[in-house]
Amino acid sequence: MFSMEKMLNDNINAFKLTMIGDLMKYFVRYGEIGIKSRKIRSKFEKKLMENIKAGLDCEFINDNGRIILLTQEDDNTVREVLDRVFGIVSYSQIYETVTDKDKIAHLVNTTLSDLIGQGKFNPETQTFAVKCRRVGEHDFSSQEMAGYVGSVVIEQFDAKVNLSNPDFRIYIEVREDKTYVYFDKIKGLGGMPVGCQGKVICLISGGIDSPVAAFQMLKRGCSVILLHCDNAPYGRGTVEKVLKHAEKLRRYSLGEEIKVYSIKYGKYLEYVQKQAPPRMTCVLCKSGMYQSAERLAKKEKATAIVDGSSIGQVASQTLDNINASRYHCNLPIFSPLISLDKLEIEDIAKKIGTYEISIIPDGGCAAVPKYPETHADLKLTKNIIEKINQKEILNEVSDSIQRIDI
Amino acid sequence: MFSMEKMLNDNINAFKLTMIGDLMKYFVRYGEIGIKSRKIRSKFEKKLMENIKAGLDCEFINDNGRIILLTQEDDNTVREVLDRVFGIVSYSQIYETVTDKDKIAHLVNTTLSDLIGQGKFNPETQTFAVKCRRVGEHDFSSQEMAGYVGSVVIEQFDAKVNLSNPDFRIYIEVREDKTYVYFDKIKGLGGMPVGCQGKVICLISGGIDSPVAAFQMLKRGCSVILLHCDNAPYGRGTVEKVLKHAEKLRRYSLGEEIKVYSIKYGKYLEYVQKQAPPRMTCVLCKSGMYQSAERLAKKEKATAIVDGSSIGQVASQTLDNINASRYHCNLPIFSPLISLDKLEIEDIAKKIGTYEISIIPDGGCAAVPKYPETHADLKLTKNIIEKINQKEILNEVSDSIQRIDI
């Protein structure tokens, strides 16, 4: 049953909204979170709505496996927000009427006139099709309703039907005594609502890969905390880049804060350069980063570390080096880009707006030796780490960790 | 300089091939491996050619950042093989002549006639464009050559030019005294040549995710060894599915063997069920799998473990559970699907042909408790693992490990 009464019960605020002005409605469809147990599903739905609300002045009606969003914001604003909320599989602006053939036909006619006026459908050059779905008992079949609406559109606009490959689609969804009409299904980002999967520490460098790795973790619902190991004086300008990256990532983390921490890492690098064989600098650098992230994870109650590793992308990202640099870290390390090509990573970076920031020249890292180890021996690495007393210097460096975004 | 003499020097076998019959030639373009140091690049190029040769009777000329493949196999066979070799960015069947305007025009005319006959270009309904690139000193510019060939095609076939958005493209590549003509650029799989990045142990279950995870590691050049933890009597039919998965994966691992190991894991599960709290079965199962994989890795000299984890895909794939189940494994664990949605994973599975095998009903795992732990506490897990003497039972079970594909 879907009645005004249920709507009232479901969401009194939504009803209030309808009273004060032009109200726009949207179906918001979600995917995987729909197949979970009732309890998890309801938690995820709640988080999804909360996240949308963090970016948009709106209310919701929860309609079994689908959310109806109600807002007075204009369509462009709504799309701009929904396009960056993880957990949405697709969404549609909907028009609503009572389940009555003439009323439905009237609604289709008036909304279609508007869309033709806006240039979104041209009956002179484009074909159309009507698709109808029905829930409940009615004195017509879905096919009859689609046929009826189709004939009205042909009569009114002289439009041509093409059922198999139409340029324009009219969707009719009959639910008991309510009927919804919509004209497009806009693909969402997919994934899960940010904040429903616990916290991860994402190492972020200022380069192309690491912000993309953080984005990928947001996608699967993780709350992201960024940790930048500031190499100064071996690197420069990276802090500013990282702060800009955080701004871009926050656009996809509505409803969940993204903290940014920085650690004065140059001191550790200086120490490593002095104490360890030069070719080991990069392996020991990465090893220290993971362990610094682990310390922050403890403080922030995060349960995993994330980095932008992709096998073989640079000569030093070999399996041997990854193995040696991860050995002393006890938390899981996720590398969502591990199997992606550089071009695939760059494509994502361009879409989310981090690419332009990443390519700002920062001079690279001056601590990289002339001949970095490409196949670190684990046993040897363990010996060096013990000999240079890595733990102690990391403890010292860890004291410098601080938020840089407040 | 590109002359018959250089061709001879480059590859005497290739020259021999040209002597015995109809020779087809292809540009094979590779991406990332082109940007590595000379030494690494040459190693990767060698492996790429070796892998192609494992599937195709052919020879190669290495032409600075591009490989020219020579074969007497027919075009369909060539495409079928090149479409499943990692490391190839794109490829094109090429036609070759000397750098002479009339000879080039003649070559374009004859090959175009063939393609029109095969229905690959229809000058009556389709537009075309000529693109020319040039290396070396010539008495014409690239634009002049393109214009000349274009005018000949217009005259000969009455075809229409559309420079900005043509239906059909004619590529002319002038290299000193040789000129190559081709008509399409077919996208390859990308990635890196399998076998250039060391070995990984991929846990494989018979389900949808794990073969896709293995495929993703092949993509970045890893040699893959499959390990199946056979849950019988808690599971059944999975060994057959895994062997079929291996067959599909081998198609993408030309030049590198894929071994399949199985371990009698039911015994371990039975023990866990008896000794540990029921809700911990799944976490302890996964923990034992990683450690079994680590044992095999030692034997096989592999340096990483791979699984099909995707955060939150099932209630038990939480960060807490991942953390608890990975703690006792000392090798890096890669989860290339960690940030992918189920639908994205299924899309890849369908493309590589493993999906149909994965969905064969196998009854699932009968050891899964009614209420599996979804937020395993690490400390508690460590205690249980110690208490049940996990190491000892894993040692016992490890003795059952054996190749099942020979």
User: What structural category characterises the helix and strand content of chain A?
Assistant: alpha/beta
The largest sheet of chain A, given as strand count, sense and whether it forms a barrel, is: 9 strands, mixed
* Oligomeric state of shown chains: homodimer
- Overall geometry of chain A: elongated
Element-by-element helix/strand order of chain A? HHEHEEHEHEHEEEEEHEHEHHEHEHHHHE
Q: Report the mean per-residue pLDDT of chain A as an integer.
A: 92
Roughly how many Å apart are the termini of chain A?
49 Å
* CA-based gyration radius of chain A: 27 Å
Please count the helical segments of chain A. 15
Q: Biggest chain pair contact, residues each?
A: A-B, 46 and 46 residues
Low-confidence stretches of chain A: 1-20
Number of strands of chain A: 15
Approximate helicity band of chain A:
40-55%
Strand content of chain A: 15-25%
Tell me the layout of helices and strands.
The structure is a homodimer of 406-residue chains.
Chain A lengths: L3 H7 L1 H9 L3 E7 L7 H16 L4 E5 L3 E6 L3 H8 L5 E11 L2 H17 L9 E9 L6 H16 L2 E2 L6 E8 L2 E5 L3 E2 L11 E5 L5 H11 L3 E8 L7 H13 L8 E6 L1 H10 L5 H20 L3 E3 L12 H8 L6 E2 L7 H11 L2 H4 L19 H10 L2 H9 L3 E2 L3
Parallel strand pairs in A: 5-6, 5-7, 10-11, 10-13, 11-12, 13-14
Antiparallel strand pairs in A: 1-3, 1-4, 2-3, 4-8, 4-9, 7-8, 12-15
Give your account of this protein's structure.
The first copy, chain A, has 406 residues and is of the alpha/beta class. In chain A, 42% of the residues lie in helices and 20% in strands. Chain A has helices at 4-10, 12-20, 38-53, 75-82, 101-117, 142-157, 209-219, 238-250, 266-275, 281-300, 319-326, 342-352, 355-358, 378-387, 390-398, and strands at 24-30, 58-62, 66-71, 88-98, 127-135, 160-161, 168-175, 178-182, 186-187, 199-203, 223-230, 259-264, 304-306, 333-334, 402-403. In chain A, the strands form two sheets. In chain A, strands 1, 2, 3, 4, 5, 6, 7, 8 and 9 form a nine-stranded mixed beta sheet that branches. Chain A has a six-stranded mixed beta sheet with strand order 14-13-10-11-12-15, sandwiched between helices. In chain A, helix 7 (209-219) links the parallel strand 10 and strand 11. Mean pLDDT of chain A is 92; it is low at 1-20.
